[in-house]
Amino acid sequence: MEEGVDHDRALEIALANPLAKNVEVIPFHHANGRVLANPLASYVDDPRFDNSAMDGFAVRASDCEESPSTLTVVGVSQAGGDHPQKIGPGQACKIMTGAPLPAGADAIVMVEDTKIDGNRVTIHGPARTGYIRKRAENLSKGQEALPAGAALTTAALALAGTMGHGEVEVVKRPTIAILSTGDELVPPGTELAPGQIYESNSHALASLVESMGCRAVRQESTNDSIDELRGTLDKLSGHDAILTSGGVSMGEWDLVRRIMEEEGDISFWRMKIRPGGPPLFGTWKGTPLFGLPGNPVSSLVAFHVLVAPWIAGSLGYHPELGPRVSRRASVVLEEDIPGAPGKLCLRRIRIRSENGQLLATTHTHQGSGNMHSMVAHNGLTLLPPDTDGRAGEIIEAIWLL
Ligand code: AMP
Ligand code: MG
């Protein structure tokens, strides 16, 4: 076991024991939010054929050089209809948005710029080639438009549909068990006995796990008892990974650390980050396990800088197009923010956009038990060890969104 590792080393150790990556083929209509296992290429040209971007008339631009000019209407082209007949000199074809362009036409006049009278149309506006959408101007058949690791969120999902995919090969959602530990914890909404507090970490971690494209299996919290903990961990070891919260510090009742040392397999304990220093990583009966701190802020911060990149790295998520957790941003500090000696400093900041810059300030106090601070702020600084942030300086940060 390594003790007190820096951030990069912690990730390197954890990624030596990655989350198992499996893939599955699912119907397109179930693919919302899923992550592509392989690049997706188009089955079709997009557009499939030259078509009109406007309702109006398909014409020959050379027939419309004088204004007004009058043409004979020889056909209609509708979206989904048959291909219209060719137009010759002095002729026009009525055309709807998305309908195929007749041969012979090289421009479109908007319907607003025309007046129809029987089979004659008078043109009193411009005939524009730019109103024609050319075949394959967006995508060519066979072109890979979505990379592996992209999340099928709104636009990506629509693009997969545009490209004709009735089924998609996606990363199978791993199941990640989440277990809070502590005698003092009771579910919100129940009566509190003296000394008890409401349990919140398991809900927050489950939410993050789901945002990372995994299935969260949340447990009721266990008491600080080695036997209870062993029984529960054994039960959970069939999942793809386990996240625990609490019980990894130096205290006598920090039983997750103790049981992992005595009966599990610990790869590292404690990271050089603040807050969130106590995490451990190892395996329980072969299942990767992160022991996250119990302090509510610390457990979430440790997830963002340790668990999220581990999931993304294990499953091959695309850095820009994958699930949006722990995205980086460069921000301008509006105040001095002290760093931490020997530790990566993850202070909560509120990031706002002003005059083309992302400005960052701190608001509430930064105690690691203060969950309000995680809502009052929307980012974390990434101040390198022994580095203070100065007002006006640009620093790296991550979004808490
Ligand atoms: P621990 O790491 O177990 O010593 O817990 C540190 C602090 O976080 C204590 O004040 C705990 O009461 C609190 N805490 C631990 N687990 C949770 C949880 N699941 N939800 C809310 N607070 C917790
Ligand atoms: Mg505890």
In whole angstroms, the N-to-C terminal distance is 33 Å
Radius of gyration: 30 Å
Share in β-strands: 25-35%
Q: In which order are the strands of the major sheet placed?
A: 1-19-21-22-18-14-17
Q: What do the pLDDT scores average to?
A: 97
Ions, cofactors, ligands: which are bound?
adenosine monophosphate, magnesium ion
* Total strands: 28
Structural class: alpha/beta
Low-confidence stretches: none
Shape descriptor reads: elongated
Share of helix, binned: 10-25%
Structure report:
This protein is of the alpha/beta class. The protein contains seven helices and 28 strands. Strands 1-19-21-22-18-14-17 form a seven-stranded mixed sheet, with helices on both faces. It has a six-stranded mixed sheet with strand order 8-5-7-6-10-9, with no helix packed on it. The radius of gyration is 30 Å and the shape is elongated. The protein starts with a strand and ends with a strand. Adenosine monophosphate (AMP) is lined by residues 180, 182, 184-185, 197, 199-202, 245-247, 249, 251, 293-296, 369.
Entry summary:
By secondary structure, this protein is α/β, with parallel strands linked by helices.
Question: Which descriptors apply to this entry?
Answer:
single chain, 401 residues, alpha/beta, 7-stranded mixed sheet, 6-stranded mixed sheet, 7 helices, binds adenosine monophosphate, binds magnesium ion
